[in-house]
Design a protein that fits this description.
Blueprint (H helix, E strand, L loop, with lengths): L15 E7 L5 E7 L2 E4 L5 H4 L4 H8 L9 E3 L8 E6 L3 H10 L3 H9 L4 E7 L10 E3 L6 E2 L2 E7 L5 E9 L1 E2 H6 L4 H5 L5 E3 L2 E4 L9 E8 L2 E9 L7 H9 L8 E4 L17 E6 L3 E9 L18
Parallel strand pairs: 5-16, 7-18
Antiparallel strand pairs: 1-2, 1-4, 1-13, 2-3, 5-6, 8-11, 9-10, 9-16, 10-12, 10-13, 14-15, 14-17, 17-18
This protein binds 2,5-dioxopentanoic acid and magnesium ion.
The site of 2,5-dioxopentanoic acid has 11 residues, from strand 5 and helix 3.
Family: Belongs to the FAH family.
Protein name: Fumarylacetoacetate (FAA) hydrolase
Keywords: Hydrolase, Metal-binding
């Protein structure tokens, strides 16, 4: 894991699909970043890539165009792509929820049930990327990052790639009443994704090490590791349930749930720095802020600008 400073360019030595803004004229674009070099792709958006089948996406990525100098990486989703998340897919998440909740039984039941817990997490334009702040709600007193592997799914329901996701959560609000889940999970600065999509044909997502570290004044105050091999449900099952009763014309990101949760006496504080690393996928580092004020500049169709 690189130093969790929350600053500096994301380290992406492997091949990733990226969205970027050119330093020179500010024009946005989509490209392939390989060994630190971004080359442009002849498409207007990541959403356009997710309208293609995986075989066609692979062919497109095989022939990138010119090198883009001084590309600043943006959140890896745009258009009508939605971010969804699965819950209670690891034993550790089940245990942690049962400990925090006034309704412990429902978490035990959903862990065992055929139908997974799936919930809407974010519109594309609200997603923050590596280096930008994530938030804790001003009206919550118990807050955690949730380090998760996210599936990038095209409009046909095929897994096209992987991302690192931080599914920021208010344990206080969810724990008070599970019907408050949307408020615990969906608010300004609650969804962070790593900058680059790892193409599915380049990496096997089934047994990847997931690591989290939270630093406070440079000192680690919580860290943990797990593996995607501990996920209770196959990726295909999660995607199947997501696509059962809806269309995703620009594809979807489906975060697969957390296998890491701190003890109940831990809560995030402003100025903490959260770093999540998933082997073969990437890293995601975000400083923590409190409240919605930090996200006033976010607008549909306008990417989140980096803050100094
Ligand atoms: O049940 C509530 C949410 C669970 C979740 O986000 C997770 O397990 O990762
Ligand atoms: Mg989660």
């Amino acid at each position: 894991m690189r130093e969790a400073t929350g600053h500096g360019p994301p380290k992406l030595p492997l091949m990733h699909i990226v969205r970027y803004r050119r330093g020179q004229d500010g024009t946005p674009g989509v490209g392939v970043r390989d060994d630190g070099v971004v080359r442009e792709l002849p498409v207007p958006s990541v959403a356009a890539l997710l309208r293609e089948r995986v075989a066609d996406l692979r062919a497109l990525l095989g022939a990138p165009g010119d090198v883009v100098e001084d590309a600043r990486l943006l959140a890896p989703v745009d258009g009508a792509t939605e971010v969804w998340a699965a819950g209670v897919t690891y034993l550790r998440s089940r245990e942690a929820r049962m400990e925090e909740s006034s309704e412990a039984d429902i978490y035990g039941r959903v862990y065992e049930a055929a139908r997974p817990e799936l919930f809407f997490k974010s519109a594309a334009w609200r997603v923050v990327v590596d280096g930008e702040p994530v938030a804790i709600r001003a009206d919550s007193g118990l807050d955690v990052p949730e380090p998760e592997l996210a599936l990038v799914v095209n409009r046909f329901g095929e897994i096209a790639g992987y991302l690192v996701c931080n599914d920021m959560s208010s344990r206080a609000i969810e724990g008070e009443n599970p019907l408050y889940l949307p408020q615990a999970k969906v608010y300004a600065g609650a969804c962070a994704l790593s900058a680059g999509i790892r193409p599915v044909w380049e990496v096997n997502g089934a047994d990847l090490a997931v690591a989290v570290r939270v630093t406070r004044d440079g000192v680690a105050v919580w860290s943990g590791t797990t593996s995607t091999a501990r996920l209770k449900r196959p990726f295909a099952e999660l995607v199947d349930y997501l696509f059962r009763a809806d269309h995703f014309p620009d594809g979807a990101v489906l975060s697969t749930g957390t296998g890491l949760a701190p003890a109940m006496d831990f809560t995030l504080q402003p100025a903490d720095v959260v770093t999540i690393a998933i082997d073969g996928i990437g890293e995601l580092t975000n400083p923590v802020v409190v409240g919605k004020e930090h996200f006033e500049h976010q607008r549909p169709g306008i990417e989140v600008e980096s803050r100094p």
